[in-house]
Recover the amino acids of this structure.
C-alpha cells in the first residue's frame, strides 16, 4: 500500500510540476519564440498538403444558417460611423494604397460595378462556433490588379473603421491568401446589404482562416512589404493585444 | 515467463512513444478544457452558434483543470497547437513501427476465437475478480479491445476531428467534413473522444497500480520485462469461471 501511496504522490507531484513548468515556458523568451514558430509550422504544413488555390467548401442555399451571428464590434460608434450608417454609406470610400502603382479610392457604387463573386461558406470563430452565409463582392485580387500591386508587396493589411477596446481594428494576410479566388471584399450577406453587426458596408472574407481574420467595416486595403511597423507589429488587432496566432488556418 | 531483463516487454518505439504521448495528451486535454470554456456549447452538423441549437451545454472547467490555470483562449491555443505536432506525428510513427515490428499483429490484433461470447465472459469475470493472469499471448481480449479502441479509434479520431475543426485543413481535405458530418459534429466528437481517452487513462492507471506499478514503469521506461508473475491482488485460482 505504501508503494501505491508514494506512486500517487509522485503522479500528483509531477502533475503540479508540469503545470508550473507550463507557465514558466510560456513566460520565457524561448517559450514565446517557440509559440510564434508553431503558428508558422501550421501554416507550412497546411500549405504543404494543400493546393495553393484549394477552395474552402461551398455550401448549398439550404445549408445557410437562419441567422449570422455578429461578434467583436457589432455597432461601432466612433469617427462618424453612425452618420455613415444613417446615410446608407452613400459617402463611404474604400481605398487601395501602399505598394501599388495606382492608388485607388472607390465608392460603393464603383465597387458594385466590378466583377462579383458569390459564395456560400462556413464562418468558423476562434471561440468554436460556426455559421453559414452567402457572401457577394469583388475578389480582392480584382482591386490589387486595378491598383497594380507591386512585386515588393508581401502582405495586404485590412484597414477598418471600428475602434475596439484598445484601438483601431486591423488585420493582415499574405499574398497567397490575398490572391486566393475566395478572398473577397463582401458587401452583401444572403442577398441583402451587409448588416452592421456583420461589418457594413464592406468586410473581408478569408475563407481558409478563422473569423478574426475576416476584418469588418473596411475603409481600405494597404499593400506592405513588412508588418513590423503596422500596429504593434504582430499583423492584427487580436495578434497585438490578445496573443492570437497571425496564421489562423487552425 | 522470462527472467528480468532477458528481453524487452515493450519495444523501444513503444516505450519512447508512450511517454511522449502521455505528455502531449495531458497538455492537449487540459488546454482543450480551457478552449472549451470559450464557447461551452456543442452542436451537430456544420453550424451552430447559440445555446438553443446546442445538444450539450458543457460545464465551465475550473482553473486547476486547465492549461493555463486561468481562462485564456489565446494561450490555451498556443499549447494545444504546439502539442498537436508530437501527438499526431508520434501516433503516425507508432502505427508505422507497430505494423513494421509485428507488435500489432502479434499482440494487439484479435483472432476470431477471442470474439466468442463465452471467452469474453470468462475474461470479464477474471477482470472483475482482479485476476490478471492470462496464459496465451501478452494481452487478453479485454486488453486488446481497449488498446485497439484507443490506438485505432480514439487517438486517430482526435487527430482527424482536430483537423476537421481547422478551416485550413478542410480546404485541403474536404472529406474530413463528410466523415464526421460537419465541422460542429467533428467538434462534438473531438470533445467526446477526449473524455473517452480520459476514461481509458483512469482505468489504465488504476490497473497499473493494482498489478505492480514499479515493474510496469521499469518495463515501459528502461525496457526489460518486470511484469510480476503473480500480481499482488490476483487470486491464484484460475479454474472454471462459471
Amino acid at each position: 500500500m505504501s508503494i501505491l501511496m508514494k506512486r500517487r504522490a509522485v503522479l500528483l507531484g509531477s502533475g503540479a510540476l508540469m503545470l508550473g513548468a507550463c507557465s514558466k515556458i510560456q513566460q520565457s523568451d524561448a517559450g514565446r519564440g517557440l509559440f510564434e514558430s508553431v503558428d508558422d509550422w501550421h501554416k507550412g504544413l497546411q500549405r504543404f498538403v494543400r493546393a495553393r488555390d484549394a477552395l474552402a467548401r461551398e455550401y448549398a442555399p439550404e445549408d445557410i444558417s437562419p441567422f449570422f451571428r455578429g461578434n467583436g464590434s457589432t455597432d461601432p460608434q466612433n469617427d462618424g460611423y453612425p452618420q455613415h450608417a444613417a446615410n446608407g454609406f452613400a459617402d463611404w470610400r474604400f481605398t487601395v494604397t501602399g505598394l501599388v502603382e495606382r492608388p485607388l479610392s472607390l465608392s460603393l457604387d464603383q465597387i458594385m460595378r466590378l466583377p462579383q463573386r458569390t459564395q456560400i461558406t462556413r464562418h468558423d470563430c476562434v471561440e468554436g462556433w460556426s455559421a453559414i452565409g452567402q457572401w457577394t463582392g469583388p475578389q480582392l485580387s480584382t482591386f490589387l490588379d486595378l491598383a497594380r500591386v507591386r512585386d515588393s508587396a508581401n502582405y495586404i493589411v485590412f484597414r477598418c473603421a471600428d475602434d475596439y477596446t484598445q484601438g483601431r481594428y486591423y488585420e493582415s494576410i499574405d499574398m497567397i491568401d490575398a490572391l486566393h479566388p475566395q478572398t473577397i471584399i463582401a458587401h452583401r450577406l444572403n442577398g441583402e446589404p451587409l448588416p452592421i453587426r456583420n461589418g457594413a458596408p464592406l468586410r473581408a472574407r478569408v475563407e481558409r482562416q478563422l473569423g478574426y481574420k475576416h476584418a469588418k467595416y473596411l475603409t481600405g486595403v494597404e499593400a506592405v512589404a513588412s508588418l513590423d511597423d503596422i500596429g504593434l507589429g504582430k499583423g492584427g488587432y487580436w495578434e497585438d493585444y490578445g496573443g492570437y496566432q497571425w496564421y489562423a488556418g487552425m | 515467463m522470462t527472467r528480468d531483463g532477458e528481453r524487452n516487454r515493450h519495444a523501444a518505439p513503444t516505450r519512447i512513444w508512450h511517454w511522449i504521448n502521455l505528455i502531449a495528451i495531458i497538455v492537449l486535454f487540459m488546454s482543450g478544457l480551457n478552449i472549451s470554456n470559450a464557447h461551452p456549447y456543442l452542436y451537430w452538423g456544420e453550424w451552430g452558434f447559440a445555446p438553443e441549437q446546442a445538444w450539450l451545454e458543457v460545464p465551465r472547467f475550473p482553473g486547476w483543470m486547465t492549461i493555463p490555470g486561468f481562462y485564456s483562449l489565446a494561450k490555451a491555443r498556443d499549447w494545444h497547437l504546439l502539442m498537436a505536432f508530437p501527438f499526431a506525428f508520434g501516433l503516425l510513427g507508432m502505427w508505422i513501427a507497430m505494423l513494421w515490428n509485428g507488435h500489432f499483429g502479434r499482440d494487439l490484433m484479435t483472432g476470431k476465437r477471442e470474439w466468442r461470447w463465452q471467452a469474453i465472459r470468462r475474461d470479464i469475470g477474471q477482470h472483475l475478480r482482479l485476476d490478471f493472469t492470462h496464459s496465451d499471448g501478452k494481452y487478453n481480449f479485454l486488453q486488446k479491445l481497449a488498446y485497439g479502441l484507443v490506438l485505432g479509434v480514439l487517438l486517430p479520431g482526435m487527430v482527424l476531428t482536430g483537423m476537421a475543426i481547422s478551416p485550413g485543413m478542410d480546404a485541403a481535405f474536404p472529406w474530413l467534413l463528410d466523415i464526421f458530418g460537419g465541422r460542429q459534429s467533428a467538434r462534438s466528437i473531438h470533445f467526446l473522444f477526449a473524455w473517452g481517452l480520459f476514461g481509458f487513462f483512469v482505468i489504465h492507471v488504476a490497473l497499473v497500480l493494482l498489478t505492480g506499478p514499479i515493474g510496469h514503469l521499469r518495463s515501459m521506461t528502461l525496457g526489460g520485462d518486470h511484469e510480476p508473475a503473480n500480481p499482488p491482488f490476483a487470486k491464484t485460482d484460475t479454474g472454471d469461471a462459471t
